[in-house]
Structure prediction request, 418 residues.
Amino acid sequence: MRLDCHFVLKHLRAPTDFAGRISAADDISSGLAPWVLSAGARAKAGLSAPSIPDARGSVVALCVWTGEMKGPVEQKVLAPAFALPLLWVERKSDSPRLPEGFAAVADGVRQALEIHDWGLDLAEDLDGLDLSGFAFDSASAWASLAAGLYLAANGGTPRTDVFATGVWNGKGVESVDGIEYKIEAVLDLVAEKKPTLFVPSANYDQADKHAAERADIVAFPPGESIAYKSLREGLLVMLAVPPATTDSLEARCAYANQDFLMAAFAKRREYYRGNLVLDLAARIAEKRKGEPRVDRLVLGLSLSWELAVLLIAAIRPRQALLLCTVESNNHIAAVKDKLTHDCTIEPPVLLTRDGEEKACEEVAKWLSPLGSDCCRPTTAVEITSGTKEMTTVLVIAAQRAKAQLLYLSHKTSGTTPL
Prediction:
């Protein structure tokens, strides 16, 4: 069914009462009604709030009614602003059923991100409708369309409580109209939890004041002339659904290696600690099968304590001794809590300023227990984790105790893939 403003207005004006207008709106707009009706009208029509799609390629564009369509808004039949569900699909052309202006915005998104061979269509909820006769606020959909395309092209799926609005002008994300109405549209859609809305920096104060703690308002970085970077600084990290621990290790590593997550070090490290470190350790341990088990292992503990977890879980010693600083000593409990195999964590050796020789003696002594050569335990020193000072102490201690020296090339920060 092809819908346009004149067709809809003709049917909405015929009934003289509120209930009649609601019924007419529901009849003529089919799957669109739950998205565009006001909350009161939707309840009167017995309709539930629509479910936000979360499949790969799904996008929700926040639109404001303009022109003659403001009449039904004033009559409280239509909401002042609404979410339009769209879908990026792997094909070269956009759907002819899109509202006026959306194909042009979609083309601008593809050019800005240099991602081609993806076309924009209406979501499955609107299957059978033709909205090409409508003219919505299409330019402000750039931010949501761009984030949705990037995620789709890189295999990601979107969260259903993160939204965005903003016009792209080649020099940053520009301000939009109707920001207060768009906030209300978001709140109407996400009633169970606190949503997040990304807005142009010029709209931030107004949006934050209107949201009044009901939604988290985040501003796009002002003056960013590279389209991808304007999305990377917050929106993509928030919008992308992280793979769960039940997903394949390859899928989780691929997520951790996404450009936008590598630029968000704290978020990436949090994901690594909770969803990757133990499975990566298990893979390393599998490759080490057949090697003699290490009885005693010494390694440095830095503020990036997840590396100590990785190494202990991968090498699986019977006992482990951690060389710590005053600061990193506070993370020993986190290491113990994360480990799942049987390993005794000894009281740590503290490395203080000008205390390198003392620490070296303690480590070497622990690595050199009394006993004949035939029954001496297998000892090793791991120098992947820790600071440069820790590495120096550990190398010298290993030489004195004639212990194995182990090193695992492993980086998780910056732009280095896992």
Observations:
- The chain has two domains: 2-6+47-239, 287-406.
- Residues 287-406 form a domain with the Rossmann fold fold (CATH 3.40.50.720).
